[in-house]
Amino acid sequence: MEMVKLDGISVSYGKNKVLDNFSISLEVGKAYVIEGANGIGKTTLIKILGLLHKPDKGRIEFLGRELSNKRYIYDRIRKDYIGVISQDFALIFDSTVYENIALALHAIKCKRKEIRQRIMDIAEIMEITHLLNKYPSQLSGGECQKVAIARGLVKKPKLLLADEATSSLDKASKNKFIEIITKYALEGNTVVLVTHESEDDKYEGFCKIKIN
Length: 212
Hints:
Helix content: 25-40%
Low-confidence stretches: none
Distance between the termini: 26 Å
Order of helices and strands: EEEHEEHEHHHEHEE
Number of strands: 9
Radius of gyration: 17 Å
Mean pLDDT: 92
Strand order of the largest sheet: 6-7-8-3-9
Oligomer: single chain
Strand content: 25-35%
Structural class: alpha/beta
Largest sheet: 5 strands, parallel
Shape: globular
């Protein structure tokens, strides 16, 4: 079963064409890695998959249904089905770690008791329980990265998109993250990871996406 399908997608920024008639199908239960040099369109592809950017041309299908170009459709699908982990963390610095993670759950209107349980569960998995009452300014880059990952996973999205989500992690934490998202995909979700580490054998079980 296809989670998302892009058909004939083209995106330009001014005279710079980033994606040109690009097509791909991503299946449920699989993990993908987008590899390639900087500037070839990896982040743009993540934005298209995450419904954060509308293509200039082409069709997008999500769970077998073609999406219209209306903003409210994009917003609803993104809120209910998609989780994004940004390489720049995108944390709110005047909110605690707990509050940052909770934002994703408030968006889908979880009840307070469920919010707390989900946050405690993902904090334990990411080994950040001791950081929940701290602020992002008190954390290291690697700790901020773990918080961003926790926020991306906590609402249990059907499609998880991670843009260079391991760049600030040490080797052990990177390996654990790969283990977590591989298992997450096998549970019936779809994971897409952007990386510049094209020769790293830890992505051996991932389907490769090449952008030329």
